[in-house]
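We treat protein structure as text, and this decision shapes the records that our systems exchange. Such a record has a labelled line for the sequence and another for the backbone structure tokens. The record that follows is passed on verbatim for readers who wish to inspect the format:
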Amino acid sequence: MSRRLMLAAVASLALTVSSASGGTPLGGDDTGFVPPDAQIKRCEEAVVPKAASLIRCVVQCHIKTADLAVKGSTFDEEGCEQECLFKFASKIDVVLARQSCAPCTGEMAPGIMSGTEGFADAINGDIYCAPGAPFGGDDQGNLPADRDTAKCEGRVAKAVAKYVNCIGKGCHCTAVRRTFRGDPFEDEICEQECRAKFDLDGDKAAARGGCPACLDAAGRDGIAMDAEAFAEQLTGSIYCASPGGAFLDAGY
């Protein structure tokens, strides 16, 4: 169930980048376009850290819910997520007010919010995968039954957010900046380095103990592939302005 919902979240972002025409695509498996001018580049670059904060925020809501459940306490996880979305929307409003942005930047914001929340809620089922009471609501996965399981699953959850942001902020943003200047940049090598960091974080979590069997190396590999696919589509929603003058349509 979580995997199907995750793919739906990625697809919702993919729809926002499917109707572009013309322009210089980023290339490879990266969706989106090289910005047409310096002003739009600065605007799109300003969105990147906001999106990074959003994924971290939503994941932290899940971690807090799980950790408090082990202690016998409840937490308003949906309220927490709504606060994350509100903060993101407010930050985007500031960007739009202060920067010279392409029309698609404002149009993409709702898709980025819904797609990020959908991805985090769905991948949660692959992270909090040990048997237990369900998270409930639109969150996949089960509440951990003990402290050690909660700690392991929480470490993997943090590693997922870190991995998505490493690809987006560390690799894609750098690739766009360098390509805009006409400098070569090995984006795929950078992404491989991000994956190596994720694998190391996962190995450390496993070494500390408490991890359920579903978070073995194969389970973490599946999570990493889903996270990478999401990061690729997220980049296309941020770097949405076509240098040919045609902007992406909001496909939601």
